[in-house]
Amino acid sequence: MVIPAALLLSIQNVQGFHEESFLQVHAAQQPPTSIRINAAKWDKVTLPFASSGIVPWCSTGYFLPQRPSFSQDPLWHAGAYYVQEASSMALQLVFDQLVPFAQQSSLKVLDLCAAPGGKSTHVLSMLRPTDVLVSNEVIGSRVNILLENITRWGAAHTIVTNNDPADFTPLQGLFDVMVIDAPCSGSGLFRRDPQAIEEWSEPAVEKCRQRQERILADAWPALKEDGILVYTTCSYSPSENEQMVDWMHDHFECASLQVQTDPSWGIVETASPKHGHKCYRFFPNLVRGEGFFMAIFQKKEPVQEMIFPKKKVNAKQEIPTASLMKEWVQETGALQLYKHKDTLYAMPTETYELFLGLQDALRIRKAGVCLGEWMHNGLQPDHALAMSHLLHPSIHRVELSLPDALQFLRKETVVVEASTKGWMLATYEAIPLGWIKHLGNRTNNYYPKEWRLRK
Ligand code: SAM
Q1: DSSP of 51-88, one letter per residue?
Q2: Which residue is closest in CA terms to ligand 1's atom 9?
Q3: Of 37, 186, 270, 367, which sits 20 to 30 A from 382 (CA to CA)?
Q4: Is 114 a pocket residue for ligand 1 (Cβ < 6 Å)?
C-alpha cells in the first residue's frame, strides 16, 4: 500500500503525526473489526460474539478478534448490532458530555449526511423517545440502505429525508444538535479500502473542501442559538479538517466545544491554526480504529427560530386505536397513530409534530414506524413493526434454529409447530426477524423480498 506523498507532506506538521509508525500500520495491519450493540434489542449480559475488547469511548462498542460473515448471522439482519468502525463511535463523547438532555425534555437532532446510517443508528440509541432524529441523505440511490438500517434498528423517534443541505437553510433555528459527517477524500479509510488510494488526489481533496464549505454554510442557519454542531470526516487532510474549522470561525459566530478524553485511548487533541479551536484526530497507529476527525461547535449567533403553522390533522382518520394497542403495539410513551390511505404509522408525539411541520419543506421517506395495512379483517403487519421497539410483547413468537432462521431470511418456506393460526413473529435468539402467517397446513413467509438473503 503506497500512501500518496502529497498527503504525507500535507500532514507532516499535524500534532501527533508520526510518519514511520503511520506507514507501518498501513503496511502491516488489517483494520480492527468492531460492532455497536443495539441495547434496545440485545439486552443479554453476553455478547453475540466473542469480543477482543471494548471500544473505550463507546459503551456499546466492542472489538471482535476476527471478521465473521455478518450476512450469515440472523442477529445482524434483526438489527441486534451495527458493524461500525470504532473511531466513528466517538460521537458518544459529545452526546454524553455536551448535549443538554437535562435542560430539555425534547431535542431535535439532524444527521445531515446520514447514509448508510452508522451515526444515525448510534444517535438513535443515545436519544430518548421524546427526542427526534431527522436522518437525511441527499443521494437518492443511497437512501434505501439508510432506510433499511434505520428500520432494522427499530426506533420510532426518527424521520428519514432525502434532501439537499440547501433545503434545510429555511428551517431557521430548528435543530438543537447537528451531525455533519461530511463527504470527504476518505484517506482515513485507506487501510480498509485500498481502492480509495487510487481515487485520492490533491484536486479531489480541494473539491471535497469546497463541498464541505457549501454543506456547512447551507446547514448552519437551521441550528439554534447555542445549538451544537459536530463536524466529522474520515480524511487526514488539514484543508478538510482544522482549516475547515477556521473557515467556520471566519464566516460564522461560533465557539469551540471540548470533550474529555483519556490519554490512554490515543486520541490526539489538535488546535485549528488560526482560531485555536480544539479538534480531535484519530490516527490508526495511535488508536484502535481508523483515521477520523471531529470538531464540535456551539452557535453563538441570535436566530429567529421558525415556527411551523399549526396543521389540522387526524380529523377523519378513523384509526382502530383500541384494537391496535391491544394486539400489536405497546404504548411505551405518548404515541401518535397516523393513517395515510390504508397504511398505519406510529410515532412519539414529538416526532409526529415535527413530521407535520416538515411535510411541506422536505422530501420525507419515512416517519416513525409503519405498522402495516389496515384491511377489512385487521392489520396486515409491516416488516418495520417486526423490527420495532413498539411491538406488543404478547404477539405469538416462534423461535427458529440457525438453519431455519437463514432459510426464513432467504424468504424460503419454514415449517413451524404452532397450535394457533395467524400472524406470528419468527425469532432467532428471541429477537424478531420478521412475520410468518400460519395457515394450519402451511406457513407464509412475509420477509420483504428486497431484503432477502441471496446466498
Ligand atoms: N454518516 C454516515 C455513517 O455514519 O454511516 C456516513 C456518511 S458519508 C461519510 C457522507 C455522506 O454524504 C454520503 O452518504 C454521501 O452520499 C453524502 N453526500 C455526498 N454529497 C453530499 C452533498 N453535497 N451534501 C450532503 N451530503 C452529501
Answers
A1: -SEE-TT-TTEEEESS---GGG-HHHHTTSEEE--TGG
A2: 183
A3: 37
A4: yes
